[in-house]
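**User:** My hope is that you can spare some time for a protein that puzzles me. I have put the entry right below:
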Amino acid sequence: MGGVAFSGQIRPYDRTIRYEVDVLGIESCDGETLLAGKGRAIVDGSPVYSAASVQVGTAFWQSEETLPPTVKSCGGAIERSLSLDEFSARRYFSPGEVLAISHGTLVADAPEEFGLLPSSLMLEVGEVHEITYDATDGTGRILASRRIDPTDWFFPMNGGAKPTALIMDGVWQLLGLFLAWKRNGGTGRALGFDRAEVFDRVRPDDRKLVYDVRISKLTQEGSRAGAFACADARVFSGGRLVLYCFGARVGCRRGIRYSDYPLRSGLAFGGALKTGNQELGGQA
C-alpha cells in the first residue's frame, strides 16, 4: 500500500461514509492472485482518506530474515505523576505510565490540550522501552511493545488475525507520543504514510508485538502552530517481521480535540478537519 493520506476525519454525528475503489489490475501466478487498485473514503461529501496504490493478495510479500530488537520490561504500576520537565526527560515509560498518558493523568502540570494516547480497546502501546532524540542530526527512536493475548477483542472478529490497520495505528500512536514528549501542545492526528509492506499476520499465540520506530524528521512551528514528525517503522510479532512502514506522518495542533464528547458541538462532525467551527484547510 502506498500514497496514503488523511485529509479529514469521521466523527459521531456524520451521516454517511462512501467508499470509492478502482480496481486497476489482477495478476495470477502459481495459484496465487494479486489485485491492485486505489481508493478513497468520503464522509458527507468531504474526502477524508485516500490511498494511491493498494495491493491485496492471497499470499504475503517475502521478507529478508530480520531479528527483532531486544526489549526489557520497564516496570509495572505507576508510583506518582510526573512534572512536564520529568516527562520530557524520561527515556522510557512503564505500562502504568502509558495507561496514565492515555487518561491524561501522568503529567501533573501539562499545558492545555496536551497529547494523549487512545484509551481502552484502541490503545496499541503497552510500554515504551526507549524514546530518544538527537538534535544534532534530527533523528530519534522509539522502541515499544504490546502484549498479545488470545482473548484480544479483534481475533474472533478477523479470522484469528490482528487487523493490519491496528498495527499501523500503533506506529501513529507512538509518533503522537513522541510529539508530546518533545513538549508540543495540541492533539495528534495521523496524516498518512508513503508505503507499507505486510509480510505476515499477527497470531493469537505470538505473545508480544514489538515496534521499532526511527524518527527521520521533526518540525516544531511554535506553541500555537503545531508540530510534525515523520518516521520509518518495523513491527515484529512473535519474533517475525510482519510490517515495514516508510514515511509514516503525524501532526499535532491545538483546538481540534473533541473534548466535549458526546455533545453535538462544532467538533462533533467530521469531514475536513476543523478547529472549533473553522476548517484547517484540509489538514488532518
About this structure: Residues 197 and 244 are 5 Å apart (CA to CA). Residues 66-253 form a domain with the Thiol Ester Dehydrase; Chain A fold (CATH 3.10.129.10). The first helix runs from residue 84 to 89.
